[in-house]
Structure formats: C-alpha cells, structure tokens
Amino acid sequence: MRPDADPLIELEKAVIACTRCPRLRIHRERVAREKVRRFAGSDYWGKPVPGFGDPQARLLVLGLAPAAHGGNRTGRVFTGDRSGEWLFRSLYAAGFADRPHSEHRGDCLRLHECYVTAAVRCAPPGNKPLREEFDACRTFLARELTLLVQVRVVVALGQLAFRAYLDARRALARPIPSPLPRFQHGHGMDLGDVSLIASYHPSQQNTFTRRLTVEMLDAIFRRARDLLGQATLLKDPTSGPIQRR
C-alpha cells in the first residue's frame, strides 16, 4: 500500500473530488441513481474514476473514458464491462496482470509494470466527451505522465485516446511529431522518451464486428512487452557490447 503522502494517492483524491464538468457530473450521477436492470442491486460509484496500477509502471494504457455501467459502477477504469474483459485478458496474456479478469475494486487484481487510465475521468453521455471536457481532464493525465517516470511504452486505445495523449505531451512541452501522425491500428512511433502504439479500442462496436480480434489485441501487448525488453538494453560507449540493466 502506498503511503498517504504518495503523490499518486493525492492525484487519485483530486480526480475523485473533481466537479469541473457539469454535464458529466449530472450524467454520471443520474446513471448511478437510475441504474439498469441487470445492475439494479449494485451500489454505483457515480464519481470520477482515477487511474490505477503499478506506480513503477513501464507500460501506460490509455483509454477514452469510464463506461456508464462499467467504471462508473465499479469505480475502476475498464472494470465490470466487456471492454475490460478484453483488455485484462490481453494484459494477463502478456504478463502485465496477475489475472485475466477485472470485476470490481475489491477483487485484488494486481498489475505488473502497467498503469491503466483514461483521457476523460467521468462517463460521458453517448460515450462522447466534448472538447472542453477533454481539456478539463488533461491536467490529470499530464500529472500522471509526470509522476509515472518509468513509463517507456504507451498503448493508446482508440483515436481519441491517441490524440489525448499527444495533447498531454504538448501541454508538458514534450516532443511530438509534426505533422501529427494519423491514427492507425498497430502503428507505432518512437517519441524519444517513449514508444507510442496505436490500437483500436476494445469496445463492443469493434469486437462484435471483428474490427478488433483477440489475436490483434494480444499482438499489441506482445509488442509492448518486446519494446520494454529492448528498452532494458544499453550500449556501453567504451566497450561496445550490449549490457542489460
């Protein structure tokens, strides 16, 4: 357990307490109050959802926003919905999670070298955040990028998360490509301090139509694992051979 003085815990508290976006606040609270039939007996979180994972993460996974009856219900991003089932199955297969399921905040799931977060921290109506809502949440993502100093690979799930990550880098005055690259599943780029990999989001819209398959998503995280392996290799400028940290 991280000590209370840990800046990631302070960031979590700030996210949970956020009321910057009235439209999102009204929507997430209404969903939590009215619920849906299949979760009628559940206690909904109904607040902004912080990121979670290993504070020493070398892999950052960035999604769009909590699902209305997923993260907005469980209080943990990509938890309790179909997208989360796909994501954590692939993270487990690549060795980034200790189990293939993410069901609720008390399920004892642990991530290894991985941190999962979202560009927008509240469930948006129609799963479509407004530009000003991305802007309001960018400070949280930028703070995570600052605190997670070991990150060497970023997987952006979906075009909007891909753009949100580049926008956060720009806000931090970190180098970004010019012109901005076009989103394309499986496309990777070296940004100097990190490698960025674009992936389709594991939404039902993509998985039901097989635009994204299990094999495709697994390949994304195998590639992330391979890149992290390469990132541990250092060349000794005096002797030439490759050395492992």
Structure, explained:
There is one protein chain. The chain has a six-stranded mixed β-sheet with strand order 1-3-2-4-6-5. It has a two-stranded antiparallel ribbon with strand order 7-8. It has eight helices and eight strands, in the order H-H-E-E-H-H-E-H-E-H-E-E-H-H-E-E. Mean pLDDT is 92; it is low at 234-245. It starts with 6 loop residues before the first helix and ends with a strand. Helix 4 packs across helix 8. The protein has a single domain (7-170, 181-244), classed as Uracil-DNA glycosylase-like domain (Uracil-DNA Glycosylase, subunit E, 3-Layer(aba) Sandwich). Strand 7 (233-235) and strand 8 (242-244) form a beta hairpin. 41% of the residues are buried. The chain is α/β, with parallel strands linked by helices and 245 residues long. It is globular and about 50 Å long.
Describe the SSE topology.
Elements: H1 7-17, H2 22-34, E1 52-53, E2 59-63, H3 71-74, H4 82-93, E3 114-118, H5 131-147, E4 153-157, H6 159-171, E5 188-190, E6 195-199, H7 204-208, H8 214-231, E7 233-235, E8 242-244
Parallel strand pairs: 2-3, 2-4, 4-6
Antiparallel strand pairs: 1-3, 5-6, 7-8
